[in-house]
Amino acid sequence: MKEKFISLYNKLSDSVFRYCLFRVSDRDAALDITQEAFTKYWDVLAGGQKINNDRALIFTIARNLIIDYYRKKKSVSLEAMTETEDGENFEDFILVEDNKKYEIELETEARFLINKIIELPKSYQQVVYLRFVEDLSPNEIAEILGVSVSAASVRIHRGIEELKKLTGY
Amino acid sequence: MEDKKLKNVIGQIKKVSLSQDEKSRILHNLSVYADFHRAIPSPSSLFSYFKNSNKKFAYVLASVIILILAGGTAVYASEDSLPGDLLYPIKTKVVEPIKVALATTPAAKADVEASLAVERLKEAETLDQKGKLTPNIKKEIDGNLSNDMSNFFKIKNQMEGTTTDSTSSEIENTKIKAEFENRLGSHKEMFNKLNHENSYNPSQKMLQATSTGTSTNSYIRGNAKNMKMPDSRSTSSEYIKGNPFQNNY
C-alpha cells in the first residue's frame, strides 16, 4: 500500500504543487498544502475506502485545503474577497493576487498564457487550467469542483473558446 | 502548428514544479506519517465491507451467512413437523438436542426431556387425528419417547443422588414416575394407546425397568397394588396389565 502511495506521489506531486502555487501565490504555503493533501490522501487510502480516481481525489483534497487557507487568511485584499459576476466563490480564481504572480518564474510564452487565463471570466479560469495544463478529464474536473459533468464540460468548452480568442492559439 | 506551439507553452508552464530538495523532503515527511499511521480498518458498515474488501472472501462470508439464515428457517419450519415429514429429523436430531444442551441445570434438563416426551405424544395425537398413525410410525414415536423418558429418569435419578443401579429409595423413584405421569397430563390417553396397540413398546418397558436393564424392582414396587412383578423378559400382555396409569383411572 505504501508503495502505491509513493508511486502516486512521484507521479502527481509536481502537478498538485503547481496547482497550489498558482492558486495561493506563496511557495511555502503551496508546499505545506501539497504535503497536507498527500497526508490526507494516505488517510483515505489506509482507511480502506475505495478510491475511484486518484487524481480527482488528490486535487479535490488540495482544492479544499486551499479554500481553508483563504478562510483563515482573512486579511486578503478586497480584490480577492469579491465574488465573480457569475456568483462564483472567490476561491475559484486561478491567480488571486495580481501583484504576486511575478513571484512565479515563467518563461515568456508561458507567462503570456497564464496571463491570458487570468483574463478569462473567473468561472472559466480553473477549468481551463486544469484541462489544459494538468490534462485532467472533464469528469475529474467536475468531481474536483463539485459540479455536474455537463456544467464542467460547458465551462471547459466556453473557456477554451475564449482563450483562443485572447491568445490566437 | 498551433497545437505544437501550445504544447510547447504548456510544457513551459509545467516547469513550475517542486525542486528535488523540496520533493524529497515532503516525501520523507509523508513516509514517516504513513509508517506511523498504518492501514486501519475503517468502521464502515457491513455493506461497504462487501464492496471494498477481497471479493473472494466476501463471497465465502456471504454464503456462510446465507446458510445460517437458511438453516434458521429450516429450524423454524421444523418446529411443527411430524414423523414422516422431511424436516422431522431436523427437529429431533438438531433442534431438540440443542434445547437439552441449552438447559444448564439438571432440573432444567429434566424439564426439557419431559417436554420432549410430551411433544412425541402430541405428534402421535396429531397423526392419529389425521389417520396417519401407522404401526411403523408408532414404533418410531415410541422409540423416541422411550429415549426421552430414559433421559428424564436418568437425570432425575442423578438429581436425587441415586444411581440406576441402586435399589434404594424406591420412594424417590415413585416420586419421579409420578412426576412424569403428571407432566404427561392430558396426553396420557395417547400414551396408553401407544402401549396398547403396540406389542413392542419400549416406553412402557421404561416404566418397568431402567435403561440399563438392572434393578427393575424399585420402579415396580411403588405400584404393587395392581401389578404383578414382571421381569425384563415378561410378555407384552403383562405389561399392558401392569400399566401404572391404570392405577389412577
Describe this structure in words.
Chain A is an all-alpha fold and 169 residues long. Chain A has a single domain, classed as Butyryl-CoA Dehydrogenase, subunit A, domain 3. Chain A is 69% helix and 0% strand. Chain A contains 8 helices and no strands. In chain A, α1 packs across α3 (54-72). The radius of gyration of chain A is 16 Å and the shape is globular. Chain B has a domain at 106-247. Chain A binds chain B through residues 1-2, 5-6, 9-10, 13-14, 17-18, 21-22, 31, 34-35, 38-39, 42-43, 45-50, 104-107, 109-110, 112-114, 132-133, 169, and chain B through 2, 5-6, 8-10, 12-18, 22-23, 26-27, 29-31, 33-35, 37-42, 44, 51-53.
Summarize the helices and strands and which ones pair or pack.
The complex is a heterodimer of chains A (169) and B (249).
Chain A lengths: L1 H23 L2 H20 L7 H19 L5 H4 L26 H12 L2 H11 L5 H8 L3 H19 L2
Helix pairs in contact in A: 1-2, 1-3, 2-3, 3-7, 6-8, 7-8
Chain B lengths: L1 H12 L6 H17 L9 H7 L2 H24 L9 H15 L3 H25 L4 H26 L9 H15 L3 H10 L4 H7 L8 H5 L14 H6 L8
Helix pairs in contact in B: 5-6, 6-7, 6-9, 7-8, 7-10
Summarize the structure.
The complex is a heterodimer of chains A (169) and B (249). Chain A is mainly α and 169 residues long. Chain A is 69% helix and 0% strand.
Please describe the structure with a list of short key phrases separated by commas or semicolons.
heterodimer; A: 169 residues; mainly alpha; Butyryl-CoA Dehydrogenase, subunit A, domain 3; 0% strand; globular; B: 249 residues
